[in-house]
Amino acid sequence: MTAASMPNRGDSHVIDVRDVYFRYAHGSNQVLNNISLTVDAGEMLCLLGPSGGGKTTLVDTIMGVQVPQSGTVSVFGEQAPYRNARRRVGFMPQETALYEDISAQDNLRFFGELFGMHGSALRARMDELFALTDLRNDRGKLVADYSGGMKRRLSLAVALVQRPDLLVLDEPTVGLDPEQRLFIWRHLRELSDRGVAILMTTHVMDEAQRCERIAMIRRGSVIADGSAEEICRRTHAADLEEAFLTLERHRGEAAQQKEERHA
């Protein structure tokens, strides 16, 4: 069954994050401050913000790697550890999670088998993904001999191996050249058109504009949520960078006024 024909099983959202608050045990400041957002089937949402703003931590809470102190996170209507939903999710972390002492094809075969794929079906899927990521001629190489960009492409192949209904991609185009980025974006749009929900992070404004919906994250809070055009229109900005700076300035002014009222 393809992602587009996969039943939704009555779930209203693929990802549903509600009032999530998180802080690390060793830290004094909150990393996620009562964040709420949803992602639906066929939707591509980009989490946009500077490094340290909370994007990766939010991804980790969605994937069940981190547990928030308050609030709820559900994926396909199920809360972590996602005993059923996990098989429907493809995940590409920011840090490479590959076995470097074996070949690329052995990596992809291993992860495919984890999802119950075997035999000719797995071999055909591997051929398809190595073609997609332009790694056909390097599939037999040790991952340790791969460049950073090649590892990112292999990580994407791993995330796609079981034909997931949800893709969670943390900075997926880092280390890729412009031609490779364009190719990856084209494929992501095709997946979205087929009903796959996609959540990705980036700190690059131009990359975010390729998503139909953007959630700007700053200091653990969502400061804007909408299309690039909507965000720019609401902030009277010429581009996303100007919009981000405008929103940050308004937040600073509001915080200062609050302090003055309580002084």
Automatic annotation (TrEMBL):
<dbReference type="GO" id="GO:0016887">
    <property type="term" value="F:ATP hydrolysis activity"/>
</dbReference>
<dbReference type="GO" id="GO:0005524">
    <property type="term" value="F:ATP binding"/>
</dbReference>
<dbReference type="InterPro" id="IPR003593">
    <property type="entry name" value="AAA+_ATPase"/>
</dbReference>
<dbReference type="Pfam" id="PF00005">
    <property type="entry name" value="ABC_tran"/>
</dbReference>
<keyword id="KW-0547">Nucleotide-binding</keyword>
<feature type="domain" description="ABC transporter">
    <location>
        <begin position="15"/>
        <end position="244"/>
    </location>
</feature>
<dbReference type="InterPro" id="IPR003439">
    <property type="entry name" value="ABC_transporter-like_ATP-bd"/>
</dbReference>
<dbReference type="InterPro" id="IPR017871">
    <property type="entry name" value="ABC_transporter-like_CS"/>
</dbReference>
<dbReference type="InterPro" id="IPR027417">
    <property type="entry name" value="P-loop_NTPase"/>
</dbReference>
<protein>
    <submittedName>
        <fullName>ABC transporter ATP-binding protein</fullName>
    </submittedName>
</protein>
<keyword id="KW-0067">ATP-binding</keyword>
